[in-house]
Design goal:
Elements lengths: L47 E4 L1 H6 L5 H5 L5 E6 L3 E6 L7 E5 L2 E2 L20 E5 L4 H4 L6 E6 L11 E9 L4 E11 L6 E12 L2 E2 L4 E2 L4 E14 L2 E15 L9 H10 L16 E17 L3 E17 L12 E18 L2 E16 L11 E16 L3 E19 L5 E19 L5 E12 L3 H5 L1 E4 L4 E4 L7 E13 L3 E27 L2 E24 L5 E14 L13 E8 L7 E12 L19 E15 L2 E10 L23 E9 L1
């Protein structure tokens, strides 16, 4: 690994006191000083974790959910190999709020076969808030919040800068490219710009022993930003386009009822065809536009004011194999538009910070006519209004905050079902939420954080009125119009210890949920034109979640780092004690990394990773299609990287990574396609990144 430099026998290891989450982050690198000033969005009194540029870059060609699994307590719920949603402490879907540069992501994210419509590669950092943070952000934050932020525009940059990354992965023969350029407009005072693009292409991916036909994808994304900074004023305009086409596994879509039972019994495709890059039918195609305008004004006397408006347009088309050569006509074609407006104010007065804001959200969703298929959900509109206030105190050793919020949401749905009957209705939801939290540092090495919060969410129109089959999962889903809004009470406490050779953090939480919504099989099948499908129906119950996350770094010498993460969740119905479905099983991963310190311009590193996922023994066969959960599995991975400093701002980094390098055949319990296929086999990826 060290061919052009001489490794130093000793290293300098400095222990720095961790900064509060609300403070400005400053980082320094030897031989080249890099100063980054970014204000974290998460509160210092919340339990949160941050993924930076390095982690995001290495995840090129992978899903957002796979990237977030680098945080303890985070897993994913999948539909096949390319559709995945993040899971925080057993919560997923509309219980996890995704924030894109201050705007909540609105799109067709209902159902397990709809992944977030966002390009993770365009962000500099991603913060994961594990507590119930509905006071600042409103409904749908029961499990937590994922805050995705681009770095500040380079208003004072003398020369343009950026990076270019390319990646190739052997599983699916896929490749991806991502590039960014930014700078200051010449001759201007306070004008800056940024341009980012991502492209991905994959053919059929494979398990350990067979191909997953029609499981390729195409992805082309672009984002741009323009900003003006003058004294106390700042104005920024952002636009992004997410364009993705995903193939859907054919073995979960075709055949009569007998073939359906045979596919479930085998647990793998009945037939496999040779590899192809073609994305045939069935498939999904999503195009998501986002435009954000942000104006801010900062004063020493009255505090800071920020107004942000955003517009999102989401167009989803789902095509199935249809008779009479009509496969090119989508069976599902949904168009969603949303407009958000937020006005926030905050002010520091010595150790006290006051914060308040109001938010307005309007959503309109309708189905395209002429598909020849009854839409799975009716057309609907949503209007949501909310206001909040937070008071915070920050001392030398401790801090605390308390916040309250009130929300009103009006939902109106209208459509015709497959019998020609009109259905839908109006729903009004009014909720009051609150949160209290604090942190305490008894010594420089110890930090304790605790937060208790109430959160809520209204049932989605999909949960109320759906009547059709999900394209990706191969399930027929029936809604329940009598569903009530969910109410959650979550208490999470974190203890962190930092010393020169070890860093340990343990998070424990309790969560009570009233009217918890989930779908479970009716143990009946339905035969439609597209084939035979198992029927799932939505229901509600009182739920109790609790669990613990562990994150340990052990550095016996400065060049060696051992990183261990573990998580376990228990989730039951409060009345009966029955287990809830699709709760991630206990898991543990650990990584051993060697980072030799070398003279010259080379920065090598090498590491190996082991991941263990236990069998989900807390499993109720009545809530599943089959009466057993997949067995436990172990996966091995590796990473070898070499960075070459080229002088100035330029550097070249070559990274070779591998997942499931022993090509183990396994199934993940939270993969909704596990009834029909195994998870992915060996994947070796090579990435080259040029910074300039």
């Amino acid at each position: 690994m060290v061919m052009m430099g001489v490794c130093l026998p000793g290293v300098l290891h400095a222990l720095t006191k961790p900064l509060p989450t609300d403070s400005i982050i400053s980082t320094q690198q030897l031989n080249e000083v890099v100063v980054a000033t970014e204000r974290n969005k998460a509160s210092i009194n919340s339990v949160n974790s941050t993924l930076g540029t390095k982690a995001i870059d290495k995840a090129i060609g992978k899903t957002l959910a796979a990237l977030l699994e680098q945080v303890s307590g985070i897993s994913s719920i999948q539909t096949g190999s390319t559709i995945a949603k993040p899971v925080i402490h057993g919560m997923y879907g509309n219980r996890i709020l995704l924030i894109n540069n201050g705007a909540r992501l609105t799109g067709q994210q209902w159902g397990a076969d709809h992944a977030p419509e966002i390009d993770k590669n365009s962000f500099q950092k991603i913060e994961v808030v594990k507590g119930a943070e509905s006071v600042r952000y409103g409904s749908e934050a029961l499990g937590g919040i994922i805050l995705m932020e681009q770095k500040s525009l380079p208003y004072g940059l003398a020369t343009p800068q950026g990076h270019l990354s390319v990646m190739y992965g052997n599983n699916g023969h896929r490749y991806a490219m991502a590039g960014m350029a930014e700078g200051k407009i010449p001759g201007s005072k306070g004008l800056a710009w940024r341009l980012h693009g991502t492209y991905g292409n994959s053919g059929d991916q494979r398990t350990a022993h067979y191909l997953l036909n029609n499981m390729g994808y195409r992805e082309a994304n672009v984002s741009t930003a323009l900003g003006y900074n003058r004294g106390a004023w700042r104005a920024e305009l952002n636009y992004s386009l997410f364009d993705q086409k995903i193939g859907v596994m054919q073995s979960a879509q075709m055949g009569n009822e007998n073939l359906l039972q045979e596919r479930i019994r085998l647990g793998r495709p009945v037939s496999v065809t040779p590899y192809s890059r073609t994305i045939g039918y069935p498939h999904q195609k999503v195009m998501h536009h986002t435009a954000i305008l942000r104006l801010s004004y900062h004063t020493a006397t009255w505090g800071s004011f920020e107004w942000q408006t955003s517009y999102q347009h989401d167009n989803r088309r789902e095509n199935r194999i249809r008779r009479m050569n009509n496969s090119d006509i989508p069976t599902v074609s949904l168009r969603l538009q949303s407009v958000q407006n937020t006005l926030n104010w905050n002010r520091w007065h010595k150790a006290w910070k006051s914060e308040a804001g109001v938010q307005l959200l309007n959503v309109e969703n309708h189905s395209e006519r002429g598909t020849g298929v009854v839409p799975i959900i009716p057309n609907y509109t949503e209007l949501a209004v909310g206001g909040y206030a937070v008071q915070k105190y920050s001392g030398d050793k401790w801090g605390a905050e308390a916040g309250v919020r009130t929300d009103y949401q009006h939902t109106q749905a209208d459509g015709y079902d497959w019998t020609g009957q009109r259905y839908g209705g109006r729903h009004n939801f009014t909720n009051f939420t609150y949160s209290i939290g604090g942190h305490y540092r008894p010594t420089p090495r110890w930090r304790l954080t605790s937060n208790f919060g109430m959160a809520w969410r209204a049932p989605h129109v999909y949960e109320l009125y759906s009547n059709g089959n999900e394209l990706g999962s191969g399930m027929y889903v029936i809604g329940n119009k009598a569903l009530k809004s969910e109410h959650s009470y979550k208490w999470i406490t974190s203890a962190e210890y930092r010393a020169p050779m070890v860093r340990v953090r343990a998070d424990a939480y309790l969560q009570w949920i009233e009217n918890y919504i989930y779908d479970e099989p009716t143990h009946s099948n339905i035969v439609v034109v597209a084939g035979a499908f198992p029927v799932f129906a939505y229901k509600q119950t009182e739920a109790f979640f609790r669990g613990v996350d562990l994150d340990v770094h052990f550095t016996p010498i400065a060049t060696i780092d051992y990183h261990l993460m573990g998580a376990a969740i228990w989730a039951n119905e409060r009345g009966t004690g029955n287990y809830l479905p699709y709760i991630p099983s206990a898991r543990l991963s650990h990584t051993l990394t060697w980072n030799p310190r070398c003279r010259g311009k080379l920065r090598p590193s090498v590491g190996i990773t082991h991941r263990f996922v236990a069998r989900q023994n807390r499993f109720d066969p009545k809530t599943d299609l089959i009466n057993f959960a997949p067995r436990a599995y172990n996966l091995l991975g590796f990473e070898a990287a070499l960075e070459w400093l080229l002088g100035g701002k330029q550097s070249l980094q070559i990274t070779l990574m591998g997942d499931n390098i022993l090509n183990h055949e396994y199934k993940e319990y939270t993969n909704r396609s596990r009834y029909y296929a195994h998870d992915l086999g060996r994947d070796i990826r090579c990435m080259v990144k040029w910074n300039y």
